[in-house]
Design goal:
- By secondary structure, the chain is α/β, with parallel strands linked by helices.
- The chain has a single domain, classed as NAD(P)-binding Rossmann-like Domain (Rossmann fold, 3-Layer(aba) Sandwich), CATH 3.40.50.
- The protein contains 8 helices and 9 strands.
- The strands form 2 sheets. The chain has a 7-stranded parallel sheet with strand order 3-2-1-4-5-6-9, sandwiched between helices.
- Helix 3 packs parallel to helix 4.
- The protein is globular.
Length: 265
C-alpha cells in the first residue's frame, strides 16, 4: 500500500470518475488540478498546481511515493496548448520525480499514439507508434520521456494507452476500446503493488471480445480485466446506426482523431 498517492488532473473526467474508487490504494491521496477542487473527499488533500510551473510541480510531487498522472490536455488542440500542458508539464513532473525519491508513476497515455493503424491490425507493446494528431504526438513524447527517465534515473512508469474509459461504451468503436472504471482500478492496484514494474507499454482496454490489442507482454503485472463491452452491443445497436464503411470510426483505431473532425475520446 502506498503512503501517499498523487493524482494530477483530479478535476477532469477520468479523475472525477476514479477518485471515489481509490481510497484503499494509499494511506493518503493528494489531488491536484489547475484550480482548487470543490468536491474533495474526506481522505483527500487538495493541492492546486499548474503543471507548467516547475517549482510548484516539485513541491506537489514531494512526499509522494506514487503518481497517477492524468493531468494535461486530453483532446486535440493547437500545438501551443498541447506543448505547454503535455510536453512542458511532463518534463516538470519527471524532473520533480527524480529529485524527490523516484515515485512510481502511472502515466495516462492514449490509444491516439497508434491511432492511424487500421482496425484490422492487432497491436502489442512492440508495435511502432502511428499518432493521429498533435495530441497523439504529445503522448508519444510522454512515453519516450518516461523511457529515458527509467533508463537514466530509475523512475518506473506504466505507460497506459487508454482506450475509452467511461461507465459504458458510447458508440460501436468503443466496443473495442472500452476500459471499464473497475478494470482501470484493478490495473492501478497492480501497478503500485508489483515488486518490479520497469517501464512497460500497456493497452488500456477491458477483456472485450472486439478488442484490437495484445497485453501478453505485461502478464507479469498480474492484471486480469474482468469486464467485457459485449454486454452493451445490443443496446448500442438499438440506439444508433452502424457507421458506413468509409467512416473513420470503422477504419482507424483512433477513430475521428484520424480525420479533421474531432468529437470523441
Amino acid at each position: 500500500m502506498l503512503k501517499r498517492l498523487l493524482i494530477t488532473g483530479a478535476a477532469g473526467g477520468l479523475g472525477t470518475m476514479l477518485r471515489p474508487l481509490l481510497p484503499h490504494v494509499a494511506d493518503a491521496i493528494r489531488v491536484s488540478d489547475m484550480a482548487p477542487l470543490t468536491d474533495t473527499l474526506p481522505h483527500e488533500e487538495d493541492v492546486p498546481c499548474d503543471l507548467t510551473d516547475r517549482k510548484a510541480v516539485r513541491a506537489l510531487v514531494d512526499g509522494c511515493d506514487g503518481v497517477l498522472h492524468l493531468g494535461g490536455r486530453s483532446l486535440e488542440d493547437t500545438w501551443e496548448v498541447i506543448r505547454a500542458s503535455n510536453l512542458d508539464g511532463m518534463v516538470n513532473l519527471y524532473e520533480a520525480a527524480r529529485h524527490t525519491g523516484n515515485p512510481r508513476i502511472l502515466y495516462a497515455s492514449s490509444n491516439h499514439t497508434i491511432g492511424f493503424y487500421p482496425q484490422t491490425e492487432r497491436l502489442d507493446g512492440r508495435s511502432p507508434t502511428r499518432p493521429d494528431g498533435f495530441y497523439g504526438v504529445s503522448k508519444v513524447f510522454g512515453e519516450a520521456l518516461a523511457s529515458m527517465y527509467f533508463d537514466k534515473f530509475g523512475v518506473e512508469t506504466a505507460c497506459l494507452r487508454i482506450g475509452s474509459c467511461k461507465p459504458e461504451p458510447e458508440n460501436h468503436r468503443m466496443l473495442s476500446t472500452w476500459l471499464s472504471p473497475a478494470d482501470f482500478v484493478r490495473l492501478i492496484e497492480r501497478v503500485f503493488a508489483v515488486e518490479t514494474l520497469g517501464c512497460p507499454i500497456i493497452y488500456g482496454a477491458s477483456a472485450n471480445d472486439a478488442g484490437w490489442w495484445d497485453n501478453s507482454h505485461v502478464a507479469y503485472l498480474g492484471w486480469e480485466p474482468q469486464d467485457n463491452s459485449e454486454i452493451f452491443r445490443a443496446k448500442l445497436d438499438a440506439a444508433m446506426d452502424h457507421p458506413g464503411p468509409d467512416d473513420p470510426t470503422v477504419l482507424f483505431q483512433g477513430g475521428t482523431f484520424a480525420s479533421d473532425v474531432i468529437h470523441e475520446n
